[in-house]
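Homework-ish question, so no full write-ups if that breaks the rules, but can someone show me the predicted structure for this set?
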Amino acid sequence: MTRQTRADGSLRHLLTLEGLSRRELEALLDRAQAFVRPLGARPPSTGLLAGLTVANLFTEPSTRTRVSFELAAKRLGADVVNLEMQLSSRIKGESMLDTVFTLESLHVDVFVIRDAEAGVPALVAASVAPHVSVLSAGEGSVSHPTQGLLDALTIRQRKGRIKGLAVAIVGDIRHSRVARSAYHALATLGVAELRVVAPPALLPGDDEFRGCARYTDLEAGLRDADVVMMLRIQRERMLDEAQLDPDAYFRAFGLTSERLRLAKPDAIVMHPQPMNRGVEIASEVADGPQSAIRDQVRNGVAVRMAVLATVARAGNGATA
Amino acid sequence: MTRQTRADGSLRHLLTLEGLSRRELEALLDRAQAFVRPLGARPPSTGLLAGLTVANLFTEPSTRTRVSFELAAKRLGADVVNLEMQLSSRIKGESMLDTVFTLESLHVDVFVIRDAEAGVPALVAASVAPHVSVLSAGEGSVSHPTQGLLDALTIRQRKGRIKGLAVAIVGDIRHSRVARSAYHALATLGVAELRVVAPPALLPGDDEFRGCARYTDLEAGLRDADVVMMLRIQRERMLDEAQLDPDAYFRAFGLTSERLRLAKPDAIVMHPQPMNRGVEIASEVADGPQSAIRDQVRNGVAVRMAVLATVARAGNGATA
Amino acid sequence: MTRQTRADGSLRHLLTLEGLSRRELEALLDRAQAFVRPLGARPPSTGLLAGLTVANLFTEPSTRTRVSFELAAKRLGADVVNLEMQLSSRIKGESMLDTVFTLESLHVDVFVIRDAEAGVPALVAASVAPHVSVLSAGEGSVSHPTQGLLDALTIRQRKGRIKGLAVAIVGDIRHSRVARSAYHALATLGVAELRVVAPPALLPGDDEFRGCARYTDLEAGLRDADVVMMLRIQRERMLDEAQLDPDAYFRAFGLTSERLRLAKPDAIVMHPQPMNRGVEIASEVADGPQSAIRDQVRNGVAVRMAVLATVARAGNGATA
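A: Not a homework solution, just the prediction itself:
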């Protein structure tokens, strides 16, 4: 595994939450919390990254995540360039590195990388000059660390703590980077009970999500949960692997108001978006009083500001 | 119809010019006029929108209009993000709203929305938080309010007034948001005579463009006009509805120097662009001394600055 | 040929290096050198172009060149807008000019234009208002002037001089704008010997590259060279014109460590990127100690800052 920290222990890259200590996670959450503003308030704006350049390098489209990183970087005073690339698999690693070295020579200081396959962010992190940082914005089904942080921050805000809670993650766990990063964050932060709930074919392998209870029945998985994290399901996976069409999926695993009543009365509902309304979640729940989905988005830009500010601080040669 | 004003009467959204009073239109034109600079002069640059974020959300491509709004926002000091989305019709409204709520949670303050179908800007305006404003950058064949304002400003600059003029709008009136917004602006601002000139199949329905004289003969429609506004014609509409090929269209409805002589000697010629040279307008006219087409573009960025400055002023919570 | 200079002799456009004097080239290189910073240092940032707007107008995709110009302009304080256009050949010139006039009316001061065919940058330069400048970012197989400047700057940095050197350019010379601009720069700057090395079908016509020695044997062309400039080869050209597949091309014209030993021991290797590793260049050479490829990229942004600062200086009405 690529080292994410510098010799002095400070965070240089953020590729995964796995291996970050509780203290490190909490420091990032605290820093992010300081960047949170209520809807309608002016967002924080600082010159912390003035003179630095952030490149968003996305090989799979994700407008929302790109805009979240873009605004986070701009509000810290950085210059931002966006690159969307379609790379053929055969030459992906090599072409990605040539592009990265080009951008590095143009004085890009931080790379934000999103890729549909595993391995590219670590390859880039292992190759760039010492003053350069790499942030994953979603890597295959492996990791989506800023999503895991914003999920943890949202739970902490709404429930006042993470320790001792029961959290149910529902949907295509097997292929979900969101579930993996949530697991890494929440396990380290002391969640009491983490449940993964899915059709049998979409549950993770036995060597993963250690310590999590596994459910193939949604109603059992929801019972007395404090937090319900719904995942986006892809149509092809439903049909090919879970042998369910969208209507059948909704009947078996869709979150409705009625089912939500099985969780604790003050349970919150989360979703990483984009949602398939009427497939994995009913609109009445997505837009209902227990939904924390919009808080997640707002926290996303705060988390990305915190991560950018952390990796690009004094340890970064370019800011010296 | 969605209300465009706040409780105190100030403008919050701009979705249509229909219903704006003469005083309101003139205030916008006056404010825009103050942002106009001659070609070659440095454009105005202010910090009026510093700390605010403007999102250009375009579901149909229009590079020129997007750049005009983008530069208007940047020159007012705002952060700008551009999103081009292809949304399938079936889920458009829902996906658009989820995207808008995401951006709102990222502290976007003003949405500039362009869509090929009617209804989306009003849907968004009815859904966003009270501190957020929505500007239409073109909505189906319904409305293009900043285009209507820049057309009115161009006429006022070149002719010294709008009241009392004879204006001929020529082309595919039936499907034109440009014609509708020009009608709303010019009728309210006291134009003496507004003529719509088109092949019979492209004239508007009888319940629209009330008070306008209708012509199916270009030469009759041009006679003694002060202003000739040409519209872009789409190849498919020509062939399918007007039963004319491009050459036949030009022979019947193309504006040539010879025909322009039927208008007043000091008549001006306008076009919203992009032009089909040799179809609805001859190059000699587009580039000739009576053409105000480049003034329209220059006025466009001034009008968009004025509208942004107006909706985002003190009434906007984010600026407080 | 379009004049590139103003009446006072100052540079207004940069479309080609052909015809620039040694003094003019050296002034641009000196100005660029002042913008060069080592990797990891903060790049220079000035307000020299504050209030000016630069439009990148690319009709063929080139993310790296676009980002290089974009960062150069932003670091000089300019506003930047990016436009990628697909224009059909039939209406290209006309549509390009309508777009350019639109942008000019939006107070764009500098156009950076990239086009796969010859003629468009000169057409635009001949048409814009006197205060507007046009920079070519690559024009067909004709010219790529900022690439020629960054190549010259890289040689000057690494070899201490250009005068008296032996430079071999290897690859598809016939279709290469990079080779043509290198030739114009290096010939004027007093290179001793310029060799073009290619399969017979890819050598230039006899009326071009005057004074250059022609080689169809790579090893002969490399002997005792001070600088080896490799060009990117396109798969179709290899197969259709040189009658070589990628492996056969590499065997005949690929630069390996072994072949590089034929050049001077301190020879440097250059490539304009993107590279086809294993086709025109071996990875061991591209990433080896004699490679100056990353210096070229770093110098690229410095050269583009120098060119922007030069054309947009006092002679530019918009800065007055």
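Now go work out the reasoning yourself. Hint: Chain A has two domains: 22-143+298-319, 145-297.
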